[in-house]
Write a structure and sequence with these properties.
This protein is 60% helix and 10% strand.
Length: 624
Amino acid sequence: MARRSYNSNGSLEKEPEKVKITKESLKETLHLYSYIKPYRNKFFPSLVFIALSAFTTMLYPLFLGKMIDAAVPGAAAEVQSPAMGMGSMANYLDFTGWSLGEILVLMIGVLAIQSVFSFMRIYLLTDVGERSLADMRRDLYSKLISQPMWFFAEQRVGDLSSRMSSDLSQIQDAISFTLAEFLRGIFTLLIGLSLIFIISTKLALVMLAVVPLIAVVAVVFGMRIRKMARKAQDQLADSGSVVQETFSGITVVKAFTAEARELARYSKSIFAVVDTAISNARYRGAFVSFMIFSVFGAIAFVVWFGASMIKTGELKMGQLTSFVIFSAFVGATFAGFADMFSNLQKTLGATQRVRELLRLQGEDVSLDDHQQKQKLDLKGEVELQDIRFSYPSRQDVEVLKGLSLKALPGQQIALVGPSGAGKSTVASILLRFYEPGGGMLTYDGKPAASYSLSELRSQMALVPQEVILFGGSIRENIAYGKPSATEEEIHEAARKANASGFIEKFPEGYDTLVGERGIQLSGGQRQRIAIARAILKDPSILILDEATSSLDSESEQLVQEALDNLMKGRTSFVIAHRLSTIRNADQIVVIDKGRVQEMGSHAELVAKTDGVYKRMIEMQFDWD
């Protein structure tokens, strides 16, 4: 189960799940190297600096021991004993005759060099991690943004956002931090074990007989504690979900007097957290007690054994000091591998999910601004011939059942019918958000598939019922229809959309921020901004999906005037529930159950004695 948390926006966010370390999962992770490869001139030197940093760090305990030997009278005498096993190698590390000051200067010099190595490893790995992850983020975003509409219909936005945030952040941490710590740990372990054997083989074997057992017990305890901690965090996230759901639906809660019920639900969730936390505290308490006893007991035992070796002349006091510090380094490295292993599992899981998305086949759309310039000049003739369609998630339900209609250049085609008849589906087919399962869609007499999606959609504009504005200024939202538009073109589009009046009344005019999804503007204002955006795009084909259905009468009149300006000289498809808005359409197409039931002008359809359109008119209006 994934651990959940809340991001800065208050929405639920999942922590990357762990996967088992297998040959296949490791192979997937190796694909990350393709993103590191362009920066290999910094990546490989960073690995060298990691090794050098670990080596120079491990010299510190050695110098410390030599300093103690230099300070203790008689300790400088060379130890001669066959028990030292590798005594001849230890002589290479001997500083006999060096003064305290000389050793101190050497220590400071080595520490200064180590500081440079540490700086370079952090700087270079961070540089590589940030740049390679920026490339990966861009590739993932471009892959997602080029996916067809059915993909977004089947995916949760929160899950996709999680891939872009938590999964990629996990991979970034692995490159910039976990990899460095893992390699540093390996080098520390190898150097530390080598040096303690050089100092005293006997004492090293004594230490290795005790420390690994403690490390194994610590890892087992740690895994259990982390598992319970994750359980507590999951439960805490559940309680957070209760709060989020309650506050989001507070109107319903109060309308149904469900305050007590929600309080009981929240209380149940938080007391579950309490039970888990207390249980976890028992394990943590036992773990801490065990570690204090075993670690300090092991140190005491090693020091006791080393002290006895000092008495027999097998070891120097400084060597024992160095040995104990080296042992601490080795023990800490062993303990740190548990967290590194956990992070590796998370990274493998994150990499697998990101790679799944990167392997997806997207739409054939241009992602280069310079290639998106309008190269196509459609006249606006559109024909749907015997179109059949089922949504990918509901293949067994046919939404369009042999639907046919034709629009000549500049005609206004109104699509009417009951909810669920297939009107909005026709709009999605026209925009090629979905491909029909049967039949043919043509533009200017040529199959839709013969045009590239970017070229075709560059000649089309959509004004939906629920207008989506981006969280910038009014100017930026209007210019979304034509990023290269001049200030005069933006103002002219706003004027034609009946939007310039209210825009100029704002203190900041066109620089007024619309807020997230345009929340700072009214419904009618948002619609007119969307119409100005479409006017600026200057499309050959226009699709209006119930653009006035949710507006009051005054706003509807202003928006309808703007729409009339927008539709002049363009092939327009108007989906409407308010039949008064499409009375002057060149052709009204009545759709029901995925088929065209009637087709003609308003006058022709009203003249039919028992026509579907006439019944709809009678139910909705009393015409003069």
